[in-house]
Structures are given as C-alpha cells and as structure tokens.
Amino acid sequence: MNTLLQKLGIAELNDMQREAFDAILRSRNDVIILSPTGSGKTLAYLLPLVQLLDGNGADVQALIVVPGRELALQSDRVLKSMGTGLRSQSCYGGRTAMDEHRVLRQNRPQLVFGTPGRLNDHLDKGNIDANHIKYLIIDEFDKCLEMGFHDEMQRLISKLPVLQRRILLSATDAEQLPRFVEMGRTTKLDYLDEEQPVSDRVEVYRVDCPEKDKLDTLRRLLLQLGEGQSIVFLNYRDSVERVDEYLRQQGFVTSAFHGGLDQRQREDALYKFSNGSSTVLVSTDLASRGLDIPHLDNVIHYHLPLNEEALVHRVGRTARWDQMGRTFFLVGPEEKAPSYLLHSTTLPSTSEVGGVSEVGRVPLPRMATIYIGKGKKDKISKGDIVGFLCKIGGLLPQEIGRIDVSDRYAYAAVSRHRLQALLKAVSGQKIKGLRTVVEPVR
Predict the structure, then answer these.
(1) Domain 367-440 in the same topology as domain 2-190
(2) What number of other Cβ atoms are within 10 A of residue 15's Cβ?
(3) Which long-range contacts (CB under 8 A, 24 or more apart) does 24-30 make?
(4) What is the pLDDT of residues 121-152, one digit of tens each?
(5) pLDDT tens profile 369-387
(6) How far apart are CA 97 and CA 75, in angstroms?
(7) Strand order across the 62-65 sheet
C-alpha cells in the first residue's frame, strides 16, 4: 500500500481511511462509511478493494454505483492514477450504450464505475456479465437510494446473483436503507458530526444584500475575493444562466454548469474551471457532489441551500483533506437567516478577506483552455500534445498546464496571454500527421 500512496503523493491515510481499510480488507462484513465531503472516501474503498480483486481475471468483479457521470469519471481517474494494473471503465448516460459496449468488449474491465440506469442497460443486454460480480460499492448512497433512483437500484441489485460484499459511502446518512440492498452483517463507520454540519476548517461569512436582486452584491464580493477560484451555487437552471451571463458581461471568466446542458458543454465547463481557465463556476447543486477541485478557495451560496444535506455537500467542495476554505451566504432583505448562520461572521473589509486592494478590477485567470479534435483512438498522447504545442505552437513547457486526453478529443490548458498567437500558429497544422481542429473553449 505504501507504493500506492507514494504514486498518489499522499504521506499517510487519515483515521477514517485506515479504519475503512481494515473493515473492508480484514473482515467479510458489509461496510457503511459516513464521512464528510472531501475526506477521501474514494481512496477509502479503492485501496482495499484493489487488493481483493483478481488482476488476471477477464470479467467484471466489482460495480461502483454513483449518482452522476462526473463522479463516475472522477473515481475512474483516481483508480487509474493508482497504477495498479487493474482495468476499469466508466459508464453513464449522454452517449450511446453501443460505444460503451465496444470499449467493454475490448477493455475487459475488472471494475466498472457507472450510473444506475446505464449499468442496468448493460446488464440487461449482457454487455456486463453479472456472474462474476462479488463486490458492490454504492457511493453517495443517500442520493442513489432516494426516490429518483429507487426502482433502478432495486432492479440493479436483483441482477447480481453472486454478490458477496456491499460497501456504502456518503457524506450524509440515509434515514433507512431499503430492504432490497440486502445488507448482511454490517460494520458502520460514522465520522459525521451532526452538531457541526460545516467543518471547522471552513470560515463562514454572512453577506447581507440590500436588494432582493443579489447580482451587484455578488459582483462586489467576487471583486473582494480577488484571484481565488469560487463556486456560486443556485437552486435553478435558469438562474444559473442569468447569473453567468451577468458575470460575463461584467468581465469575469466563468463556467456555467447544470443538468440542462449537453455532455460537451458540461465537460467544457468543468475542464475550464478545474484547470484554472475560469475563476468562477456558476452551478446548480449538480456540482455539489462528485467534483474534486483540489484547491477551491470559496463556496458562495447565491440561493440558500434547500436543506442541511445540500449545505453539507456544497460546503464540502472546499477545505478538502486538511486544507482551509471559506463559504459565503448571500442573505436577501426578505430572507430569514437559517440556524447554521448563527455563528457566522458578517462580511469583513477587503483587506481582511484577503482580496485585491482596489475593488473594481476583475481578476482574470492565468490559463485558457483549448479543444483538440484528436484523442487516444487516434494514437495521440499527452506527450504528443506537448510536442505539438511547443514545436508548432511556439509555447514554452511552463506555459502549458493540465492536459486531458479522451478517446476522440483532448483538452489542454495554456497560458492565456499566449492564446491568440498559439491559435494562429497551429491553424491548419497537423499533429502526428493528422489534421485536426484546435479551438478555444469559451
């Protein structure tokens, strides 16, 4: 295990992860893990699970069920970064099941991360053989087992005839587990603090808005916060569009994210934000689960959370692992401040927040994101993209940031002030002999 931790750049496990490791690896019990968002639950189950699986097997041995595609992709990336040699795949809606079936047939994964509906589809069609699946992990089980997924989860579990172990994880507890989960002898690890839904590593600020429309207050707050990255949470999709459009008009570089966007738009938004090409992610609660932005500075609640569960998941985007973070609640003149703001601090002056000295200057991100229309299926690697950007695009290695290569396309973060020169230099050029589209992600 020490080798795996070294690959991940982690010095040691926290208490929850150590106890989870022993409960999963050294017993045959089913396991429930309750722990705050950002405490490392993905590693808590992956580290012992990879030691239980047969690396020589050609069939799926473990299903990891998640409520959304973002968490499926993120968890799959964590496993691949561990370098265990195990094969994995993420499966989710928004793309054809036939394409996923082809990859399943070629890849022969031992672990599959997926959403309930898509996993049911593959099991029904025989694309995934259920007769070797011994381990079922339900991440964010409170979300997966709520009414929207209830029937799909029941159908899914009924199709796993040789299931031996169930591992459930969440940052909030469910009142009662449905009978169909069929939990056996269970070990429950509860690291939640019901008296303190917001971590003591998060500074809590109340921002009083003089008008019902909070747009100008949000603008002023973001100017105070300066160059740090912020997520602005809203409760409705149309509100996300309205706030995002306003901030763009004010000169901010933003990403909009909600369930009404198509897959490419959602991917563009997340890549821009996660690689530092935008400073503000404007989102519904869709972004409150399954996203791992390692150094998110601020969580801003334009609309107050609908309940304590939403509060926990929103605020959990910051102060991940042992870091510090800040959360700001915008309270309108007609809104009643909820109980969790009783011990908040009224928004301090600019200097105390640690923002820019002159409010009025919109902070711009250091990076910009480009889309490259070739990927792994075209035999394009990260090294090929770096060479293309340096040799043809004229960039220095330090002017290139995060690169993500998918099957048919890639994203790369590049220095913002070199963007236009880069686009001009690579226009009409080939990468590894292949002509491709290179365009900025707006």
Answers:
(1) no
(2) 11
(3) 24/48, 24/49, 24/52, 24/165, 24/167, 25/51, 25/52, 27/187, 28/164, 28/165, 28/185, 29/184, 29/185, 29/186, 29/187, 30/165, 30/166, 30/167, 30/168, 30/183, 30/184, 30/185, 30/186, 30/187
(4) 999 999 999 999 999 999 988 888 875 688 89
(5) 999 999 988 999 999 999 9
(6) 20
(7) 88-91, 111-114, 62-65, 135-139, 165-170, 30-34, 186-190
Q: Which residue has the higher pLDDT, 241 or 6?
A: 241
pLDDT tens digits, one per residue of 333-359: 988 877 767 656 665 444 444 443 345
Instruction: Give the residue with greater pLDDT, 158 vs 320.
Output: 158
* Dihedral class, residue 360 (left if φ above 0, else alpha if ψ from -120 to 50, else beta): left
pLDDT at 1: 63
pLDDT for the residue 5? 67
Query: Residue ranges per domain, the chain?
Result: 2-190, 202-353, 367-440
CATH number, span 202-353: 3.40.50.300
CATH number for the domain running over 367-440:
3.30.70.330
Q: Which backbone phi and psi does 146 adopt, to 5 degrees?
A: -75, 175
As a whole number of angstroms, the distance between CA 375 and CA 125 comes to 28
Opening angle at CA 68, ends 67 and 72, nearest 5: 100
CA distance 253 to 277: 8
CATH of domain 2-190: 3.40.50.300
What is each CA distance from 440 to 368, 415, 420, 421, in whole angstroms?
8, 12, 9, 12
Nearest C-alpha neighbor of 4 from the set 38, 49, 69:
49
Q: How far apart are CA 153 and CA 306, in angstroms?
A: 25
Which residues have a Cβ under 8 Å from the Cβ of 83 and sit 6 or more positions away? 4, 7
Angle ∠(291,259,88) on CA atoms, nearest 5 = 50
Q: Are 88 and 76 in contact (CB under 8 A)?
A: yes
User: In the beta sheet, which residues pair with residue 206?
Assistant: 329, 346
Query: What are the DSSP E strand ranges found in 124-271?
Result: 135-139, 165-170, 186-190, 202-208, 230-233, 254-257
- Do you know the residue count of the chain? 442
Q: Does 91 score more than 60 pLDDT?
A: yes
Beta-bridge partner residues of 326? 203, 298
Burial 99-114 (b: 16+ CB within 10 A, else e): ebbeebeeeebbbbbb
